[in-house]
Every structure is written in structure tokens, then in C-alpha cells.
Amino acid sequence: MGFWTLLEGLLLFANALAILNEDRFLARRGWTLAELPGGRRNSLKGQMIGLIHACQYMRLPLMILNIIIIVVKMFSG
Questions:
Q1: What is the pTM of this model?
Q2: Nearby residues of 46 by Cβ (< 8 Å), 6 or more positions away
């Protein structure tokens, strides 16, 4: 496994987190920022909720990175 494969895997993981719907999927399980008390943001659950929220916020840069990866894959094989 090379560095490029690791980067592709991280991009796929970020894509998976970005498409999670907060109303349909996350709210049922109590994984929204609104349901998280202020003091619990440093817990593992709080950090995961923050990561999901950050990936959803950064959708446009993720799209651009996906386009770059697709173009590089087309030319490099």
C-alpha cells in the first residue's frame, strides 16, 4: 500500500461522511451538534460528530479533490 492509495482511501472516507444526511440518519441516533452538550465535545463521540460536520461543511473542496483524483487516474492509468 502506497501513499497514493492511502490518500485515496482517506478521500473515500471523507466522501462517505459528507453524504450522511443529518435529518434522516444522524438525528435518529443522537449524533447531531444540537444534541451534544457543551462539555462533552472533547469525548470520542463529540469528536466524531465534529468530524462528520466538518466533512459535510467541506463538500465543495471534496468535489474538487474528487475531480483531480479522477483526472490523474485517467492519465496515469
A1: 0.77
A2: 36, 40
